[in-house]
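Board notes (copied after class):
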Amino acid sequence: MYVQLAFSMMAGHCYALIGEVTLMTGAESYQDAWAKTMGPQTAWMPGFAVMSQTLVACVCYSIILGDLGYDLLRGLGISGWFAVRNNLLAFVSVTMLLPLCMLRSFAMLAYTSMLGVMGVVYTAVFMVLRKVEGSYAPGGQFYKSIPADSIPSFGTRFEGVKTLILMATLNTAFQAHYDAPKFVGMMQPPTLAQFNKLVFPSFLAAGTVSCICMVAGFLTFGGNSNGLILNSYASTDKLAVFGRLGIGASILFGYPLAFNGFRTGLLASTGNSKAPQSTKDLIAVCTLVFTTGVAMVLRDLGFLASFAGAVLGSCIIYIFPALMHIAATKKAVEADEKLHPNKQLGLTYSARYQMSYGILALGLSLCILGGSVSYLQVCDTLSCLVGAH
């Protein structure tokens, strides 16, 4: 629990670092901030990382929509063609996701964010309630309806490997850093103090709600908690049905925002930022075909989230912001020292500058260790499956 809260605040600190770099350099985007601090020659690196991570996010969203929709229809007693997971996923992709991704402006989706927040808060409350009631404990109301792979199981020893996987997965939970320059530009007035007042409470709230869900889910199902925790709850649990509706709505309206990040990065990397709408629509179709196809085959959200979080998330959240902040601070201090003594501002290497080196080390460690452990974990799982056959 404390690890998750610490990660949320660390992610918030790094988000604030990007805001500071944006104000120092006048950057208009995450990639532009890199170009103005680290050099334009390597600006493709953060662009590629953001593009890849948002594509992975779209795949994760498709997996979640397929799983939630399947369990939701089962809970409502609906059978037939729609009750087949892949059929439902294809239907949602064509009739809902595609029109949303082809919108000329995503401004209207800003009003749906509150619906997503309400869905997440409701889910946290119902998960705590079910734990307190003991509904999923032996003899509880829904114990016999728990999916076979989620029967509660609790160990007695610390497992370092799983802790590393958790830390890697947490990188995907608090990741929105590529949008920081955009929000700085929207502020009135655009000051670091004002930006920090918005950032830290937001990340603390997100970390608290996420922590409640994680703790309630683990205390209910233990080591058998599903990577998508709502999959562990009985399809006949009415409170879980509404939870799936709320989270499903949040994911449904969040998908086009993640897709927009991917499409913007793709067009920027190809030097086609002012592409016609027909090109943007074609990208939407191709992306949905890809993510829906992958989601139909890949069901292990835990591995995808942990591996992408360890490698891409560590770069976007910790490594890149730390490097940009270090470089921007050095340039500012060195430029100040070259001024005439009467014009110098007295800039120095602050504690935030020193802390950036620690964040850089943390990011590199998470990237290497988390990525390696996630990869070895899936290799071990595949070996077990091959051996079983």
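Comment from the instructor: The two ends are 38 Å apart (CA to CA). The CA atoms of residues 200 and 331 lie 26 Å apart.
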